[in-house]
Amino acid sequence: MFKIRYSLDCELDNGITDIKPPQELNVQVRNLVLKAKKGGVLTKGDIVAEHPSSMLGAHHVASCGKVTAVNYHSLTVKCSGEEDTVEPVDVRSMNAGAELLRTLRGLGVDVSQLSGKAETLVINGLNPEPGVSVAQQILRDGREELHEGLCLARELISPARTFLAVSQGETITLPGAETVGLRARYPYSLDPLVVRAVTGKEFPEHTRVIDVMALYALGRVALTGLPVTDTIMTISGRNYRVPIGTTINHLLNVLNIKVESGDTVVLGGPFRGEAIYSLYDGVKKGDYGLFVTSSKAIPAVQDAACINCGECVLQCPARVQPHLISRCVEYELFDQAEKYGLNSCFECGLCAFNCFARRPLLQYIRFAKTQLRTKAEATQA
Ligand code: SF4
Ligand code: SF4
Question: Best mutation site among 4, 272, 320 for ligand 1, i.e. most ligand atoms within 8 A of its Cβ?
Fold first, then answer.
């Protein structure tokens, strides 16, 4: 087996550049509970949708404007250019507990890693994927927000020990956290592998992990009292603060990036990102990259037959069998897919990236997980 080393280190030469809000936002609301209607007039920071899970944050509009269209996938807002925002909430004066968690969730923060006490807190400061330098940039330029986010997280979790995992050789520190240097190679930036490297255990109990992007967003909410309305993304090697709902088309135009017919545009990173369906899709909360893959350089994934080469099994860091899982999913045998390790997969995307037949292995895996989750929720209801 030939193993390529995917380095996570990037060169940083600029700060974070703001992308101005466009004239129209397209907020993705698929599988969310809508809280805005067509014709509604919104102020920047108003809630437009909530997640059905009690642990995931609400979604807010990034600019003042009027809702001009709503469908299952998205909510379109014609921006007015006004500068008003919703009233800030004084999060820092609140006591740790259920009320604070509810408030943070209402401000767009995902609270699954902040809810309840834990012995160990691991801050994942590695860049999430090759070519994405968001974590490195935030560690360099977002000290105040990180400090504030960490104070709040520690108040809520009360960990006995806090670790900051960074690329080996980095000398970055955060107050109250022990810095641990890790090899900056993909997939060792993924949360389960970072936790294993820091604690020496696989999926240890009483341990929480928060990446620096989420910690930074939490810190900004604490400092400003305002909801999450933007995300930091690496695009063509530089980092931008992008209002949520900004269409891909707008980003491509503003940054003068050309897309040819047949190219694949990916939101997220090159391994775990998702190819977008339309250039009018809006950027989502938590998106950390935008990549254009030329059809001439890398052929698109396709529903080709597996040739049993075994490469995906050799590449898989979770030691599961992606080829067998994908075959089960093709025939909707989701329970069978679980027996081949579906739930141990942490979606690194290495199997799909290395598949000689270009099978959409990661897509099959995500599809199966969604189907099983939906089935479980329907049974509980
Ligand atoms: S995405 Fe593929 S390679 Fe990665 S953990 Fe899951 S099955 Fe293994
Ligand atoms: S890498 Fe692709 S072709 Fe090879 S065994 Fe895995 S799924 Fe089959």
Answer: 320
